[in-house]
Automatic annotation (TrEMBL):
This is NUDIX domain-containing protein. It comes from Actinomadura rugatobispora. The lineage of its organism: Bacteria, Bacillati, Actinomycetota, Actinomycetes, Streptosporangiales. InterPro entries: His_Pase_superF_clade-1, His_PPase_superfam, NUDIX_hydrolase-like_dom_sf, NUDIX_hydrolase_CS, NUDIX_hydrolase_dom, Nudix_hydrolase_domain. PROSITE patterns: NUDIX (PS51462), NUDIX_BOX (PS00893). The keyword Hydrolase applies. Keywords: Hydrolase.
Length: 317
C-alpha cells in the first residue's frame, strides 16, 4: 500500500498546483453490510460529485477537508482511511484533490443541510452512486472506497513538539518543557487530531510529551495518561513495540506521544507485524505524526488499511 502524505498549501510552494480536499462521506445503509455514500449536486455546474473544495492560503489539508465537508453538507465529518488523490488539469494548471473516507459525528450524518453552492444531497448505495456520478475520477474513487473496509479506527504515533536545545537544559531531562514553537505546535495539533474523532491520548512520562497532548486532552475531555513503555530512558524498542501492538489489538482509537529516538522503530515494528510495507522514511520531525488506519482482518487481528503522515504545519517528514 503506498504511503499517502499530506502537504500544506504554503505560499510559494507548488505554485502551479491547485490544492483541494474532499471525502467520500458514508453511513450504514438499510441492509446489513451495505454502505450509502453522500453525493452533492452543484447547480452552477449541474453535476454530481463528492464534497470537496480548495485549501485556503496556508490552510492545513486536514482542516480543509473537515471545513469543506461541513460547508457543503452540514455534516461534521470524522475522517477514516486515506484514499488515493485525484489529479487532473484545471485552467492551464494541475489540480490535486486529497480524499478520505468519512462518517458524520454523532447524529449529524442523517441531517445534511444544503447551502448556496449545493442544492441537493443524495444518500445512495454504492452501485447507484456510481451511475449518478458525473466524472470518471470520482467513479474510480468510489471503487477504491468500496474495495476497502468502511469501518476503521486510527492509531496515531505523535512525536512531541519543539522543546529547545537539549544541550542547554541542565535539569533532569524528563522535566525539559516545550518551547514557544512547541506550545504553538501543540495547539495546532489539538485541532488537527480531532479530525479523526475522539481518541485516547497516551504519553511518554516526560514534560515535553505530556505538554504536547495537553491541549488535545483539554479540547476533547479525554484524560491523558502516561506510559513508561513510550518513555525515553525507561524503555527499549522491543517493549515499546509490544505495547503499541497491544493498543492496536484493543480496537480503540488512540494517540501515542513519544520521542524521535523510537518513532521509526514503532512504525517499522507495527508495519512488519501487521503485514504492511515499511515507509521509506519512517521517522518524524518534531510536532508531526503518523496515522495508521486499522481494520479487523479475516482472522480478527488488526490490519493496516491506510497509512499517512502529517505535521503541525504540513508534511511531517
Amino acid at each position: 500500500m503506498p504511503e499517502r502524505r499530506g502537504r500544506e498549501n504554503r505560499p510559494g510552494a507548488q505554485d502551479d498546483l491547485i490544492r483541494a480536499a474532499g471525502a467520500v462521506l458514508w453511513r450504514d445503509g438499510p441492509e446489513p453490510g451495505e454502505a450509502e455514500v453522500a453525493l452533492i449536486h452543484r447547480p452552477r455546474y449541474d453535476d454530481w460529485s463528492f464534497p470537496k473544495g480548495k485549501l485556503k492560503n496556508g490552510e492545513h489539508v486536514l482542516r480543509a477537508v473537515v471545513r469543506e465537508v461541513e460547508e457543503e453538507t452540514g455534516i461534521v465529518p470524522r475522517l477514516g482511511r486515506r484514499l488515493p488523490s485525484s489529479t487532473y488539469p484545471k485552467d492551464d494548471r494541475t489540480k490535486r484533490v486529497d480524499y478520505w473516507t468519512a462518517r458524520g459525528l454523532g447524529a449529524s450524518d442523517g441531517h445534511a443541510v444544503p447551502n448556496d453552492e449545493v442544492d441537493r444531497i443524495a444518500w445512495l448505495p454504492v452501485r447507484e452512486a456510481e451511475a449518478r456520478l458525473s466524472y470518471s475520477h470520482d467513479v474510480d474513487l468510489l471503487r477504491e472506497f468500496a474495495a476497502g473496509p468502511p469501518h476503521t479506527w486510527p492509531l496515531v504515533i505523535l512525536r512531541h513538539g519543539s522543546a529547545g536545545e537539549k544541550t542547554r537544559w541542565h535539569e533532569p531531562d524528563e522535566l525539559r518543557p516545550l518551547d514557544a514553537r512547541g506550545r504553538a505546535e501543540a495547539q495546532r495539533l489539538a485541532g488537527l487530531l480531532t479530525a479523526y474523532g475522539p481518541a485516547r491520548p497516551i504519553s511518554s512520562a516526560t514534560a515535553r510529551c505530556t505538554e504536547t497532548v495537553l491541549p488535545y486532552s483539554r479540547r476533547t475531555g479525554a484524560p491523558a495518561v502516561t506510559d513508561t513503555a513510550f518513555t525515553i530512558g525507561e524503555t527499549d524498542t522491543e517493549r515499546a513495540c509490544e505495547r503499541l501492538l497491544e493498543l492496536a489489538d484493543d480496537g480503540v482509537p488512540v494517540i501515542v506521544c513519544t520521542h524521535g529516538e523510537i518513532v521509526a522503530d514503532l512504525i517499522t515494528g507495527l508495519c512488519r507485524t501487521l503485514g504492511e510495507k515499511v515507509p521509506d522514511e519512517p521517522s518524524l520531525r518534531k510536532g508531526s505524526f503518523w496515522v495508521a488506519h486499522l481494520a479487523g482482518g479475516d482472522d480478527g487481528a488488526p490490519a493496516i488499511s491506510a497509512l499517512e503522515r502529517h505535521g503541525a504545519y504540513g508534511e511531517g517528514r
